[in-house]
């Protein structure tokens, strides 16, 4: 048996519930379970979902499914000893589970399969770009549903259609109707006529309190400009789990704080053997958060849907292996919905090659976002503008005769040229001063 608490956005306990937990740690792969993976939506999908819904002026509702893992049907034979206090005439009896139970390895997978089938039987279409997105279109209405395990966001053009969906889910699984979106996966939301703010103030304050930085002196930037962290400088930490826990929480915080993405990416490279220099750099991020714990993203109510991206890179920035960094950000209108800072997998021979790889990564992300937007029944009529401040890369992309410059580059990078020929993207010029993605490849100055 276990006791679990549900929290409100302000951190207070909403309610407690007792749950019966199976000893899943005794299960054997191939005997007691086969699949464990459960589909969860990407944070980029959530942000795109919110940006589109707010731009269109649709209603957003939040649902919580009660005891979701108890609804999954088991396909394997699973037996469990009787729970403590259960009275029976025979001491050697066990029970065979027909449905899933908390603690089982396959609990999440079976629940997801049950919910997916129920929604599809109700007329919903599962997105191929993100299987956690379900949509249903009729002659006069459109409804979209986004699932993260047992937390659900519902939006649509017709309030009656949303109401009918709630009744269906309540009959099938029993739900708790949470009303308008306020608090979802640790992300707080405030919506008015101008748009919606999403932020993680409560989560940020919890990180600061856990690390003793509530009264710390604020820092103006999340990292020291020009600083290059290495795996050998400094002394190994006596308690590396403190650093690892902080970096893990900061990684989740980047879902609404793109301005700390580069600094956190640098820290995440050293979670294996963190040193005191890395801990000091992590403390710098915490001091930066102390200055504005409630900052986040704002998605305005704007019916004009326009997708545009910014791609940049930093050549050979890693002092240990000379690998480069890719950085990009993508806007839906004025709403920032996707961004990334990532070290490239291979060493590049030139800055043009590095920019070309970054451009390819951004192009793939744009294509994926177009699939999500199309599933939401929203049309992007114009070519997607992808801004790159490297003129040589733009020339290589637009002129395929430059074979001598690109013969050493991976074939998959040529996806940029393909998408230009297909009429998906275009490459307008942009100055380095106006390159927004520059902030995802180096520290703020």
**Domain tally:** 3
Beta fraction of the residues? 15-25%
Discrete helix count? 11
Give the overall pLDDT as a whole number: 86
Task: Tally the beta strands.
Answer: 19
Q: Percent range for helical residues? A: 25-40%
Strand order of the largest sheet: 6-7-8-9-3-10
Characterize the overall form: globular
The first-to-last residue Cα distance is: 53 Å
* Helix vs. strand class: alpha+beta
Largest sheet: 6 strands, antiparallel
User: Helix-strand pattern, N to C?
Assistant: EEHEEEHEEEEHEEEEHHHHEEEEHEHHHE
Radius of gyration over all CA atoms, rounded = 25 Å
Query: Which spans of ≥5 residues are poorly predicted at pLDDT below 50?
Result: none
Describe the structure.
- With 445 residues, the chain is α+β, with helices and mostly antiparallel strands.
- It has 3 domains: 2-198, no CATH class; 201-291, no CATH class; 304-440, Nucleotidyltransferase, domain 5 (2-Layer Sandwich), CATH 3.30.420.
- Helix content is 31%, strand content 25%.
- It has helices at 43-56, 107-121, 159-173, 201-210, 240-253, 261-268, 276-291, 351-375, 391-398, 403-406, 415-421, and strands spanning 2-7, 13-19, 59-65, 73-81, 94-99, 125-126, 133-137, 142-148, 151-156, 175-180, 183-184, 187-192, 195-199, 296-300, 307-314, 325-332, 335-343, 384-388, 425-426.
- The strands form 5 sheets. It has a 6-stranded antiparallel sheet, sandwiched between helices. A 5-stranded mixed sheet has the order 17-16-15-18-19.
- Helix 5 packs antiparallel against helix 6 (261-268).
């Amino acid at each position: 048996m276990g006791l679990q608490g549900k929290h409100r956005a302000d951190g207070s306990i909403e309610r407690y519930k007792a749950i019966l937990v199976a000893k899943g740690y005794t299960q054997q792969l191939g005997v007691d379970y086969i699949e464990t993976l459960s589909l969860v939506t990407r944070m980029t999908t959530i942000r795109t979902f919110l940006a589109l819904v707010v731009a269109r002026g649709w209603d957003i509702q939040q649902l919580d499914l009660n005891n979701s893992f108890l609804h999954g049907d088991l396909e394997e034979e699973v037996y469990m000893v009787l729970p403590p206090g259960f009275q029976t005439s025979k001491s050697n009896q066990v029970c065979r589970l027909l449905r899933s139970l908390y603690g089982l390895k396959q609990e999440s997978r079976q629940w997801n399969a049950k919910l997916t089938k129920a929604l599809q039987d109700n007329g919903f279409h599962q997105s191929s770009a993100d299987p956690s997105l379900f949509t249903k279109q009729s002659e006069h209405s459109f409804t979209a549903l986004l699932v993260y395990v047992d937390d659900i966001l519902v939006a649509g053009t017709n309030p009656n259609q949303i109401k009918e969906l709630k009744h269906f889910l309540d009959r099938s699984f029993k739900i708790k109707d949470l009303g308008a979106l306020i608090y979802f996966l640790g992300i707080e939301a405030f919506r008015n006529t101008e748009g919606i703010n999403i932020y993680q103030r409560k989560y940020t304050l919890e990180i600061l309190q856990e690390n003793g930085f509530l009264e710390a002196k604020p820092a103006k930037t999340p990292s020291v400009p020009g600083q290059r962290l290495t795996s050998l400088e400094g002394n190994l930490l006596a308690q590396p789990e403190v650093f690892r826990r902080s970096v893990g929480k900061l990684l989740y915080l980047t879902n609404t704080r793109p301005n700390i993405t580069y600094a956190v990416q640098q820290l995440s490279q050293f979670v294996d053997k963190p040193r005191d220099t890395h801990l000091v750099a992590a403390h710098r991020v915490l001091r930066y958060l102390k200055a504005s714990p409630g900052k986040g993203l704002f998605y305005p109510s704007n019916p004009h849907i326009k997708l545009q991206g910014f791609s940049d890179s930093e050549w050979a920035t890693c002092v240990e292996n000379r690998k480069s960094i890719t950085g990009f950000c993508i806007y839906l209108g004025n709403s920032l919905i996707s961004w990334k800072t990532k070290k490239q997998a291979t060493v590049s021979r030139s800055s043009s090659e590095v920019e070309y790889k970054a451009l390819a990564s951004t192009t793939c992300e744009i294509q994926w976002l177009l699939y999500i937007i199309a599933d939401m029944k929203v049309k992007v009529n114009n070519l997607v503008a992808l801004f790159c401040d490297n003129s040589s890369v733009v020339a290589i992309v637009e002129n395929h005769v430059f074979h001598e410059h690109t013969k050493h580059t991976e074939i998959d990078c040529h996806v940029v040229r393909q998408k230009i020929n297909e009429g998906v993207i275009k490459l307008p010029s942009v100055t380095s001063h106006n390159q927004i993605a520059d902030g995802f490849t180096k520290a703020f100055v």
